[in-house]
Amino acid sequence: MEPTNIITWIIVGAIAGILADWVIKGIRLGLIGKIIIGILGAFLGGWLFGLLGIILFGGNLLGQIIAAFVGAVILLLILRAIRH
């Protein structure tokens, strides 16, 4: 794995995590927590979209961010349900 791939994962995770945290209120995560949720959301979103056969924007960076955002939102909803 190349260092640029890791940096891309962190950037995509940060963007997706911050956007998901902005949409789903009531869960207080620090910046590191948002990045972790975003990275995990990227795995979940990528898996779900692959399972459904959905390819967004040819799989480019914007499509990765959208898939990560969807996965992060799902994870935050699960986390909020567990906490409450």
Keywords:
mainly alpha, 84 residues, single chain
Summarize the structure in short.
The protein has 84 residues and is mainly α. 79% of the residues lie in helices and 0% in strands. The model has no long low-confidence stretch (mean pLDDT 87).
User: What portion of residues is helical?
Assistant: over 70%
Number of strands: 0
Reported for the largest beta sheet, the result is: none
Radius of gyration based on Cα positions: 12 Å
**Count of helical regions:** 3
The overall pLDDT, averaged over residues, is 87
Identify the overall geometry: globular
Order of helices and strands: HHH
Flag low-confidence runs.
Answer: none
Strand content: under 5%
Q: How many structural domains in the coordinates?
A: 1
The class by helix and strand makeup works out as mainly alpha
| Straight-line distance between termini | 39 Å
Commentary on this structure:
The chain is built from three helices and no strands. With 84 residues, it is mainly alpha-helical. The chain has one domain (3-83). Helix 1 crosses helix 2, helix 1 packs across helix 3 (61-83) and helix 2 crosses helix 3. The radius of gyration is 12 Å and the shape is globular. The mean pLDDT is 87.
